[in-house]
Each structure stands twice: as structure tokens, then as C-alpha cells.
Amino acid sequence: MLTKTARRKAAPAGAAAAVLALTLTACAGAGGGNSGTSGEDGGPVELTLATVNNPQMKDMEELKSAFEEEHPDITVNFIQMEENDLRDAVTKDVATDGGQYDIVTVGSYEVPIWAQNGWLADLTQDLESDADYDVDDLFQPVKDALTVDGSLYAVPFYGESSMLMYNKEILDEAGLTVPEHPTWQEVADIAREVDSDEVDGICLRGKPGWGEVFAPLTTVVQTFGGTWFDENWDAQVSSPEFTEAVQFYVDLVEDAGESDPVSTGFTECLNNVSQGRSAMWVDATVAAGLLEDPESSQVAGKMGYAHAPVVETEESGWLWSWNLAIPETTQHRAEALEFMKWATSKEYHQLVGEELGWSRVPPGARTSTYEIPEYQEAAAAFAPITRDIMLAVNPEQPGVAPQPWTGIQYVTIPEFQDLGNQVSQDLADVFAGRSELGPVLDNAQELAQQAGDAQK
Fold first, then answer.
1. Lower CB density within 10 Å: C or N end of the chain?
2. How far is 105 from 5, CA to CA, in rounded Å?
């Protein structure tokens, strides 16, 4: 029988979805398209919504019947995909005026780029004129990330930062405690101590994709003092700080992480931790509500939460939101807007709490959510620290060095999607033991410099 380390080295790398290399400066706007269906003269409308297959989006699909009962002439059809596949499909569609989708789930990285290209509908007037929607209640840091030149182009379904989640039962048995503000070295020491053939010391993403492995890994790079680019857009990927951070991450996964990191993303780590197979996890704060749901988690009530680990910085959490937006190509803008407003409303949060459980209410989207007594009680273990972390991070300068873009776990330039995907594919060979890190980062440096030169 293979040992845990041997299984790790023998695990196949797998393959991430191919990502289309797009020139995001292409001209696009309202036009043809065949999204959804409708009868003549205002008949029934079918909307097509493309979304990531995260649990909160599955909850939205489960509850959509409440919207359809209130709007009998509107049917909403969900297309759920893994994160990499969603980005590929939706980016391709909006960039080519495909018109396949009426509503799309997009991240805070895409929104400003797509808005500037004219791919998304401006929602400002529609939302500000609806007092019941209360656009001012949207979580301000997230709302700011979705605003371009004073106009709002998407609405947050949920917002998040990142933090350390740990199984108190496992750590207590080992006589170990976690500080509220741990360092990465402290976390690594704990992970290696509790790691065994039955339980992984920590779960960290290794799945290729700029939004998969590089979401957590870029925050590690930043707190180690590294960065993708300096203020002059000169690439820094082969710098000592960047290299040290990535080597630290790879070594920790090898020593105390999951057996197949290349196949492990958010969903896989969630499954591992919720089933008690991983002692710690550094990832999105939104996961806490899922871990505390006794209907789906075996560790509900057993988890502890701390700020994301640091080295040189005071904080290292990211800032992200999954949002709903309307492509300009839709033929059903009014109906799409009605569903988006419903799915991001105060009433929807109340519905989730009452029907599915208060710990499953989408976090980081509305400030009023944190004032609901039932939510405060159900989310007492994680809601206060989630809010504190989201307000403490600094997307203007998340690392040690100043940066010429706004963003934490991503670089807000069109080229970063393809750059991050390519580098993450090469990094998968390092996780699998087929490549050394040095040559991978040297090649990444050249790719990054090409992206940096495009900004000069």
C-alpha cells in the first residue's frame, strides 16, 4: 500500500478546462443574440442564467420557484459549471456577442474590465430608483469593486475575504492552539504536526486556474513580500520573494496537504474539511456558513476561525464577490433585472434563512444581514470575524510593495486571466513532481513581462 506521500507524488495532474485567450479590447455592445425564449406580444419568457456551481448558487436554484410563483410569465433556467469552465464559457460568449445568457455570474475581477468594454448593462438608474431594493444597503467594499466611473454594473450575490478555518476537536486532541492572527510558519508547524494517514494537516488549492490555485497563492506571495508586477509594470515573478512564497506553499502541500492537490479546488477542500478529513483550511470566508450547516457538515460546531496567516503584512485576506450581471446582448433585460433584484434582495436573505437555514444566508453582500437576530445567532462563530476581515483588507496595496492596480488575489488587467491560467498549468507539474519550480517561474516571468509591457 502506498504511503500518503507516495500517493501524493503518484497522483495524476489532471487537466483544467482550456481557457480562450481573448483580446479584451475588442468592441462589443448591444446587438443580436438568442438568449432565452419568449412568446409574441409579451408572452412567457425563459431566462438563461450561467453560474458557478458553488453551494450558494445551488441554493438560489432551489429557491427560484418562489420567484417564478410571483412572476408566472418568467422561467429561469440555470446552467451551473465549475469555476474554470464558467469563466471560459461566459467570457467567450460576451466577447463574441454570442447572446447565449440573459444573466451571468461574474467575479469582481471581470466586472470593471467588461464594463469598460461595453459588455454589461449599466444598472445604476434601475437600482437607485427602486427604494425597496435599497442599493445603499449593499456592502460598501464590494459595491465599490463593481462600480466603474460612478456606475454600477453588477450586484453582489455574496462577498468574501479569506481566513483560516480549523477543526478545534483535532487540534485540541493534539494540544495545539491557533492565534487569532497566526503567521504562516505557525500554521505550517501545526499542519505538519497533526498530519497523518487519516487526516490531512491542511487543505490548500492546487487546481489549475487563475481563480483557483492563484486565489490563495497570490495572497501568500504578497504577505511574503512578493508581487506580480512593480509600479512600472515590470514582472517580479522570478524574484526571491515570489519564489520563496511559492516554494513554501508547494512544500506545505507536499508535507501536510491533500493527496491530489492538482485536482483540489474550493469544492474539494470544502468536502474534505466538512467530513473531518482535513484539520485546517485557508480559503474563502463564505465557506464558514457551509461548515456550520449541520445538514451537510459533520464538523458543525467544531470549527474555529482566525485571520488569514501572514508573514510581512498585517493582513493577507483577499476581497472577492460573486455577482449577477446582465450582458448587453440579452433580449430580456427587464425580466433579467427583476430576477437579479429578487436574488440579491433583503427578502431573499430572509427566504434562505427560513427555508434552508440561517448559516446559509449569502454573506458579505448586505449590511442588514448582520443585523438579523436569527443570522447573528446562527453565524455567531464566523460572522463577526468575516466582517472584520473584509473591512481590514486593503485592495490598493495588499502586499509590501506598492502596485499599479487595485485588487488583492488578482491583477486587474485583461491579460491576467490567460497569464494566471498558463502559469497555474505549469505549476501543476511542480505539485505532481514532474517539474522543478525554478524553470516554471523563469518561464512565468517571461509571460508576465509580456502582460506588463502591454500596460506601459
1. N
2. 38
Query: Which cell numbers hold the place of 48?
Result: 438563461
pLDDT, tens only, 396-438: 899 999 999 989 999 999 999 999 999 999 999 999 999 999 9
Confidence at residue 84, expressed as pLDDT on a 0 to 100 scale: 81
Q: In which band, very low, low, confident or very high, does the pLDDT at 344 lie, cut at 50, 70 and 90?
A: very high
The mean pLDDT of the chain is 90
- The 10s digit of each residue's pLDDT in 34-45 is 444 554 456 899
How far apart are alpha carbons 285 and 305 in whole angstroms?
9
192: cell is 505538519
Above 70 in pLDDT, residue 13? no
Residue 371 is placed in which grid cell? 443585523
**What Rg value do the Cα atoms of the chain yield, rounded?**
22
| Model confidence band, residue 141 (pLDDT cutoffs 50, 70, 90) | confident
Q: Which three cell numbers stand for residue 372?
A: 438579523
Distance CA 371, CA 367 (A): 7
Q: What gap in Å lies between CA 228 and CA 416, rounded to an integer? A: 10
- Which residue type sits at 253? V
* pTM summary value: 0.81
6 compared with 342, residue with greater pLDDT: 342
Q: What backbone torsions phi and psi does residue 11 show, to the nearest 5 degrees?
A: -65, 140
Residue with cell 504577505: 223
